[in-house]
Amino acid sequence: MRWLPDTRRTTYARVVQHTCDQCRIVSYELCSAGGLRFIRRTDRTRGGRPEVRETERLITCRAQELWRDLLLGLAR
Hints:
The protein is an alpha+beta fold. The chain has one helix at 60-72, and strands at residues 4-5, 14-18, 26-33, 36-43, 51-54.
């Protein structure tokens, strides 16, 4: 998977699904904005400010496949 810096491309993104951010240092959100979807990764391993990265914007079916692969440990 290619992770890009958080671009703040949209002012609002709806979180469709997410992993637990309370029990994991790295959490993921499947987001929807402007008719497209993307995955946002928040990494809190550095102790300070969280590092936020995103995938490219994708059509819904491709984003769902990528989300599924991420959760199953198959995404690369």
